[in-house]
Design goal:
The complex is a heterodimer of chains A (751) and B (83).
Chain A (H helix, E strand, L loop, with lengths): L5 H6 L14 H11 L5 H10 L2 H4 L4 H9 L7 E3 L6 E6 L2 E9 L1 H6 L1 H18 L3 E11 L5 H21 L3 E8 L8 E11 L14 E6 L9 H7 L18 H16 L5 E4 L4 H11 L4 E5 L12 H6 L5 E6 L4 H10 L4 E8 L4 E5 L2 E6 L1 H5 L14 H7 L11 H13 L7 H4 L10 E3 L6 E4 L7 E7 L2 H6 L1 H18 L3 E10 L6 H21 L3 E7 L3 E2 L2 E2 L3 E10 L16 E5 L10 H7 L11 H16 L5 E4 L4 H13 L2 E4 L7 H6 L6 E5 L4 H10 L4 E8 L3 E4 L3 E4 H9 L1 H6 L2
Parallel strand pairs in A: 4-5, 9-12, 17-18, 24-27
Antiparallel strand pairs in A: 1-2, 2-3, 3-6, 4-6, 7-10, 7-11, 8-10, 9-11, 12-13, 14-15, 15-16, 16-21, 17-21, 19-20, 22-25, 22-26, 23-25, 24-26, 27-28
Chain B lengths: L1 E9 L6 H12 L11 E8 L5 H15 L5 E8 L3
Antiparallel strand pairs in B: 1-2, 1-3
Classes of the chains: A alpha+beta (751), B alpha+beta (83).
GO cellular component, one term (chain A): cytoplasm
Enzyme class (chain A): ligase
GO molecular function (chain A): ATP binding; magnesium ion binding; phosphoribosylformylglycinamidine synthase activity
Chain lengths: 751, 83
């Protein structure tokens, strides 16, 4: 094997190179040559190609993502913002929480189990690198139609992978969503979120500073996993004619990761490590260039010191390998022995592979010969930036004009009853217990609320009861009808879900999943969604702390629904005061908070009953969302309500059914004067919730709503009759509701 | 009656956590001189009739779709003599 060195590259400028196969465009390749003043070596080409891929460089999205910084609301809570491994938020009492969502979409389509498992593993390492102990995960999943064959290949594997990896790590999975839509066939979305906790003084940033400090690679050995996965997977849609482009899949080892978590936390605790960076997409290329360019700017690496699982790997492959469960640390020479003693204690293989320099160059040697000599900034930060053309698609007007007004609506009591039961059984509204029951929700003993509650709630501090609530939401149908509004609706729903538990919303992480940025229509959806999200976060006072962009989610010309998944984190001063979803006490009064309008565009009813998607999504009123959140948070703090459930997909009827199903009680509900029963039951108007109020608190509660001029209607009473009774319309025994709600997934997957 | 054997192994470049765990146990229990362990699966399939080329082809199809995950695993099919 001849090794392509810098010296050789200077002498052989005309040697053809596989830049095309590596996913680079001709002008990008030329730019690399201009930066280096010569042709790149194979190792350099590997580095640039993975780091300049869409996945790592955000080259199509960067110009739009800037808005999250420019429009960031003032927030005292934000300790670390966008740009690091994950954002960090102050939750009080000296505690800081870090959280982030990341996609692993394409790998989960190729190999569902391992793709989803390594998606969880990757985001957990991001959280770990900040110095935090990972305490919970969530996952936000999208699949093709429930009855499609491929969904039966992909879904069970993804669910088993999420559960397998998270359960083995001993992390509770406290929530997420599962959505089915034809646009996700062959483009499933697997977005994993992790949350971690630390004290303020334990926050670590991934910077390689201190000339002479050692660069240490530790964890699993480097093998041929996912070589080129970062660039090839995320840059082109699958094409059956080019099977060779399908890269080797990464396989994760959660037990290795568990050891790595404890090892890293002990290294931080012992103060023997300056910085830790996880190795994810683009492996060593990414870790070295990012650490160096965020620090003193120089690094000298002897690549042959990397411990290999497969000794036949070439230097370029070692640079690109995406083997899992690896970390890179920066260690002072004085601390090196103590560092190695800790990794040895945990049986974690460790190799010193280089040191930090002040040269401003990232130099990589292979057995004494220089195979890469680059300015790390040009690799990690100065990648291409595209101002992709975007244009409102021509079909947008006709889509919006095709509203749900002409769809036949149920009117009689029997028809409304049938509609409720069919919607409860529909794929998007059915109970997801078959999925979430495969995840451990209570391990570690701090889970206060988990699926099917509106948000996951975790206790952080045992002595004070301080805790956090997190919800993920993303409605692609709303966003298809209007991406700006749709993204805000996703934000509003996550915000409402968090507030429903009694938590004060603080900060956002976003998982942006779209089609090809080379399609101006998709790029328009993307630009509009970001604009909507940035404006929305500004209005709600919840800054975006970080997240992930996944593009090229499409098959042929058909893109997925524009899917902006919002993960929102809130804080509870005492989790003992959290508000659960289910009705429990007979005699408590049910109030509907917020205004109900005739809004069915993009609704679950229009989709599930008529296969219709058109018109305008429900209108957004962020001021009302804020007001509603304050009511819910104050009512929880002051003990005015015993249950609360936000109204979203499927409207009031679904929320009522879920609230009585939680503890198997019953309820009597009446339609307020002047409201059409169908609109009352199924409209998806926003900024609404239902609450159960003890009679002793009813006056205080209604006084609070009146003082805030927030619409509140007394719509029913909780009873223990085991029946959901819509007075004058219909009644359904809770058992019948449960059968309708709970049978869909088991009968689809337990064949 | 004929017996067809399908051996399934993870592809060489794929991480094998089980093999790694076995390798760790080797050295813990004092079995020296082991450089690496990889673990696979073996299926012994008894046919109703003879191992005709058609019958073996059918087993190969089953191996590719049911017994192995060709994304991460390789398999070999052979007819065992003298059963």
């Amino acid at each position: 094997m001849t090794i392509d060195t810098v010296e050789l590259a200077a002498k052989t400028p005309d040697q053809p190179q596989p830049w095309d196969e590596l996913g680079l465009k001709e002008d990008e390749y030329q730019r690399i040559r201009d930066i280096l003043g010569r042709r790149p070596t194979n190792a350099e080409l590997a580095m640039y190609s993975v780091m300049w891929s869409e996945h790592c460089s955000y080259k199509s999205s960067k110009v739009h993502l800037r808005q999250f910084g420019e429009k960031a609301p003032e927030s005292d809570a934000l300790l670390v913002g966008i740009g690091q491994n994950a954002g960090v938020v102050d939750i009080g009492h000296g505690y800081a929480v870090t959280f982030k969502i990341e996609s692993h979409n394409h790998p989960s389509y190729v190999e569902p189990y391992q793709g989803a498992a390594t998606g969880v593993g990757g985001i957990v390492r991001d959280i770990l690198a900040m110095g935090a102990r990972p305490v919970a995960v969530m996952d936000s999943l999208r699949f093709g139609p429930l009855d499609a064959d491929d969904t039966h290949r992909v879904l069970p594997g993804v669910v088993a992978g999420v559960g397998g990896y998270g359960n083995c790590l001993g992390l509770p999975n406290i929530g997420g969503e599962v959505v089915f839509d034809p646009s996700y066939a062959a483009n499933p979305l697997v977005n994993a979120l992790c949350v971690g906790v630390m004290k303020h003084e334990d926050i670590h940033l991934a910077n390689a500073t201190g000339v002479g400090n050692k660069v240490v690679l530790f964890g699993a050995r480097t093998g041929g996993d996912g070589i080129g996965g970062a660039s090839i997977l995320a840059s082109e849609s699958f094409d059956d004619t080019k099977p060779s482009k399908r890269p080797a899949v990464q396989v994760g080892d959660p037990f290795m990761e568990k050891v790595l978590i404890e090892c890293c936390l002990e290294l931080f605790e012992a103060k023997v490590v300056e910085a830790i960076q996880d190795l994810g997409a683009a492996g060593i290329s990414c870790a070295t260039s990012e650490l160096a360019s965020n620090g003193d700017g120089g690094m000298h690496v002897q690549l042959e010191k990397v411990l290999l699982r497969d000794p036949s790997l070439t230097p370029g492959e070692i640079m690109m390998s995406e083997s899992q469960e690896r970390m890179m640390g920066i260690v002072t020479p004085e601390n090196l022995d103590a560092f190695l003693a800790i990794t040895a204690k945990w049986d974690v293989e460790t190799a010193v592979i280089g040191e930090v320099t002040g040269t401003g160059r990232l130099i990589i040697d292979w057995h004494g010969e220089t195979i890469a000599d680059v300015d790390p900034r040009t690799v990690a930060h100065d990648g291409p930036v595209y101002e992709r053309p975007f244009a409102r698609p021509s079909w947008q007007d006709s889509l919006q004009a095709d509203g749900p007004e002409s769809l036949p609506r149920p009117s009689s009591g029997d028809e409304l009853r049938g509609t409720l039961l069919r919607l409860l059984a529909s794929p998007n509204l059915t109970s997801k217990a078959w999925i979430t029951d495969q995840y451990d929700r209570y391990v570690l003993g701090n889970t206060v609320l988990a699926q099917p509650e509106d948000a996951g709630v975790l206790r952080i501090d045992e002595s004070t009861g301080l805790g956090v609530a997190i919800a993920t939401d993303g409605n692609g149908r709303y966003a298809k009808l209007d991406p700006y509004t749709g993204a805000q609706l996703s934000l509003a729903e996550a915000y409402r879900n968090v507030a429903t538990t009694g938590a004060r919303p603080l900060a956002v992480t976003d998982g942006l999943n779209f089609g090809s940025p080379e399609d101006p229509a998709v790029m328009w959806q993307f630009a509009e969604a970001i604009r909507g999200l940035a404006d929305g976060c500004q209005a709600l006072g919840t800054p975006v702390t970080g997240g992930n962009v996944s593009l090229y989610n499409q098959t042929g010309d058909a893109a997925i629904l524009p899917t902006a998944i919002v993960g929102l984190l809130g804080v509870l001063d005492d989790v003992g005061r959290r508000t659960p979803q289910g009705f429990r006490e007979s005699g408590q009064v049910i109030y509907l908070l917020g205004e109900t309008r005739d809004e069915f565009g993009g609704s679950e009813w229009a989709w599930a009953e008529h296969g219709h998607l058109g018109g305008r999504p429900p209108s957004v009123d962020l001021a009302a969302e804020r007001e509603l959140a304050e009511i819910l948070v104050n009512a929880s703090r002051d003990g005015l309500i015993d249950a609360a459930h936000d109204l979203s997909d499927g409207g009031l009827a679904i929320a009522l059914a879920e609230s009585v199903l939680r503890y198997g009680v019953g309820a009597r509900v009446w339609v307020p004067d002047g409201l059409d029963p169908f609109v009352f039951l199924f409209s998806e108007s926003q900024a609404r919730a239902i609450v159960a109020v003890p009679r002793s608190e009813e006056v205080r509660f209604t006084d609070m709503c009146s003082a805030r001029r927030f619409s509140h209607q007394r719509i029913g009473v909780v009873d223990d009759g085991g029946v959901l009774d819509l007075q004058g319309q219909f009644s359904v025994p809770v058992d019948e509701l449960r059968t309708a709600h709970g049978s869909t997934l088991p009968s689809a997957f337990e064949a | 009656m004929a017996r067809v054997v399908v051996d399934v192994m993870l592809k060489p470049e794929i991480l094998d956590p089980q093999g790694k765990a076995v390798q760790g146990a080797f050295s813990r229990l004092g079995f020296d001189g082991v450089a690496s362990v990889r673990q696979g699966k073996r299926f012994e399939i008894e046919l109703d009739g003879e191992a005709t080329p058609e019958a073996v082809a059918e087993i190969e199809r089953a191996a590719a779709t049911l017994l192995a995950n060709p994304v991460i695993e390789d398999f070999t099919v052979h007819v065992e003599a003298g059963v």
